[in-house]
Structures are given as C-alpha cells and as structure tokens.
Amino acid sequence: MQPTAAAADLATLGGQTMGTTWSVRLLAHARDDLHAIHAGIQAQLDRVVAQMSTWEAHSDISRYRDAAAGSWIALPPEFATVLDCALEVAAASDGAFDPTLGPLVDLWGFGSAGTPRRVPAEAGIAQARECCGWQRLQRRANGRELLQPGGLRLDLSAIAKGYGADLVAAHLRAGGIGAALVEVGGEIHAFGRKPDGTPWRVLVESAADEQADLEAMPPRVLQLEDAAVATSGDRWHRFEQDGRRYAHTIDPRTGIPVADAAVAVTVVATDAMHADAWATALTVMGAQAGLEFARNHDLAARFVIREAGRLREAMTDAFAARLVQA
Ligand code: AMP
Ligand code: MG
User: Fold this and answer.
1) C-beta 313 within 6 A of ligand 1
2) Are 110 and 241 contacting, i.e. CB atoms less than 8 angstroms apart?
3) What atom of ligand 1 comes closest to residue 86's alpha carbon?
4) What is the pLDDT of residues 152-205, one digit of tens each?
5) What residues does each domain of the chain span?
6) Which of 280, 285, 303, when mutated, tests ligand 1's pocket best, judged by the most ligand atoms within 8 Å of its CB?
7) How many Cβ atoms from other residues are within 10 Å of residue 126's Cβ?
8) From CA 321, how far away is CA 173, in angstroms rounded?
9) Cα 196 to middle of ligand 2, angstroms
10) Which residues of the chain have pLDDT under 70?
C-alpha cells in the first residue's frame, strides 16, 4: 500500500557536534529516508566544525590563527556569513560582542589551548588584550578574504551553534521538509508547524541547577513561528576561585569574565545566528544596560539574574509577547 501524502508524523533525530549535542524534530512522511536525513544534518554541522572550530587543528579558523603576519586568508562562504554577522553585532553592541577574543578565551582556560581555568596574572591579561580587537579585522573580496596582521585569533563559539541551527534548518527546507524544530547545543531554529497545525513550543532555559524560587520563576514557554531562540548562560562553563565565580563570557573592555554574569540571557530573533550573538552581547552588557539596549533596539530578550541569593527574571515586552500565556 502506498503511504498517503498527508501521513506526516514527527520524527526525532539527534547526534553530536561542537562539543555538545544536536536534536531535530521534523515533520516526516513515510517515504522520507530518515537515515539519509540524519546524515545530511550531520554533514551540515560537520561543515561548520571544519571551518569554525578552534579545536580542529586544520579548520579554517585554526589556519587563520597560524597564518603568517601579512597574509590574506580565503574564507569559505559559511565562515564569511558568520563573520559578517559577528562584525555587525560587534559594531552595534559597541564591542560588547567581539569575535577576536581568542587569546583571552584561551588565557582564562575556556578555549582549545588547554590552559587551566584559573585567574591569570594581570600582565598576561594586558598582553592578551593587545592581541584582541574586532576593529583590527580587515577584509577584502567582498568579505571573502581576511587579513592576518599577526597574532589575531578568532573565536566564533558565541555564534557558531546558532549558525549551525540555521544551516540545518535551511538544508531541511531545501530538501522539502515542511516543518522542523532544530536544536544545536540549546540554540533553536523552528520553521513550519507541528502535524496538528499548531506552532512549535519550547521551554525557555532558566537555571535548573539553582535553588530556583518556583514562585518567582514560573516555567516560560515560547511559541516559535519561523523564529529562533538562543540562550547564553554560566551554567556549564565556569570556575570559582577565592569565592568569586568566573563564567566564560569575557568583557572585552576589561579582559576579565563578566562580573555577576546573568544566570541566563535568552534572545528570540528571526535566525539563531543573530539570537546567539545577541544573547552573548547582552550578557556582557549586564541586566540593566542590556535590557535598556534590547528595548531601544527592538530585541526580544529575557534575563535571569541572581539577586541576594535568589533568582529574578526580567524581559522586554517583545519577549513577553512571544510567550504562551499560562
Ligand atoms: P555563548 O555561550 O554563546 O554566550 O558563547 C560563549 C563563548 O563565546 C565563550 O566560551 C567564548 O568562547 C566566546 N566569548 C566569550 N566572551 C565573548 C564576547 N564578549 N564576544 C564574543 N564571544 C565571546
Ligand atoms: Mg551566543
């Protein structure tokens, strides 16, 4: 018997990438080859890793790091797209987001260099800061070639997972999939609707490991209609020293991890690449300045912050408008 065209069901696929996991829920028909779809998704994500992972010795980003001073490095189109967005957000956030923080990320032990996670010497911070600065990036050939002036190291970890989700979503759409919820390391891109015709819904990340005050922190559910969401948080990548908590988001103005970083900053946007970059940028700005910035720039954002040992949330109206009312 031939399956009917309307017999669409939800299929769930998953795998590993970028040091984390990916998962995709998609509207599949009986005729769809899920093994081929899985392989196609993994290939998209492998492409991002081969270009933008500092953990891969031969990736394009590592080649750029190792290139001789004065050389121009050709960038593949995906890399150029991500760098475009990174520089757009760097400029718009007045440098709160900076894709050139590689030396500082390594120095604090959050990078691929294998440096231990501890507070480095001040002289080391000053030295690493001299090797950073998005304004030093020079491009030519329509952004497809990047100059290595000597000592610059890119870090696209704050944006690549979101881009990966976008790339997978575009790949699935191009392959004729009508709807999917794509998640890469917590960053999400949704398109189409569920088989029952309702929009995709996702639970917003808060702070599961904290003594969450449930009354103050009700679960928040977002409705996503051709939209993306990304969250930056200090839950996984952090260390404590001398009673202080150091999270992996670095303030480019000081070279030091953001003090009292928000527990979680979530941004909804039309693509996950922008949502991811902005979630990081707003984390650097902090709740007060970040929320004000988000309101003035039409960003849908939510902060979860720690205040006197308790968690508190604050969000823009644009974010609240996307929540499913309890
Ligand atoms: P995310 O989880 O998306 O906020 O990304 C955090 C990662 O981005 C860190 O582990 C660093 O590799 C990198 N990073 C840290 N600080 C910044 C910053 N101010 N701008 C851009 N990338 C950053
Ligand atoms: Mg990010």
Assistant:
1) no
2) no
3) 21
4) 999 999 999 999 999 999 999 999 999 999 999 999 999 999 999 999 999 998
5) 60-148, 199-326
6) 280
7) 10
8) 27
9) 32
10) 1-7, 207-216, 235-236
Q: Atom 7 (ligand 1): residue with closest C-alpha?
A: 158
Q: Cα(28) to centroid of ligand 2, in Å?
A: 30
Residue 176 has a pLDDT of 95
CATH number of 60-148: 1.10.3980.10
Q: Is the CB of 53 under 6 A from ligand 1?
A: no
CB 50 within 8 A of CB 143: no
Topology classification of domain 199-326: T-fold (3.10.520)
Q: Is 222 in the pocket of ligand 1 (CB under 6 A)?
A: no
What's the pLDDT at 51? Answer: 98
The ligand placed nearest to the CA atom of residue 248 is 1
pLDDT of residue 274: 98
User: Ligand 1, from 65, 101, 188: best to mutate by most atoms within 8 Å of Cβ?
Assistant: 101
Which letter, b or e, does each residue of 264-295 get, where b requires 16 or more Cβ atoms within 10 Å of its Cβ? bbbbbbebbbbbbbbbbbbbbbbbeebbebbe
pLDDT at 244: 86
Which of 130, 132, 148, 151 has its CA nearest to residue 140? Answer: 148
DSSP state of 236: S
For residue 154 and ligand 1, the question of a CB distance below 6 A is answered with no
pTM over cut 0.85: yes
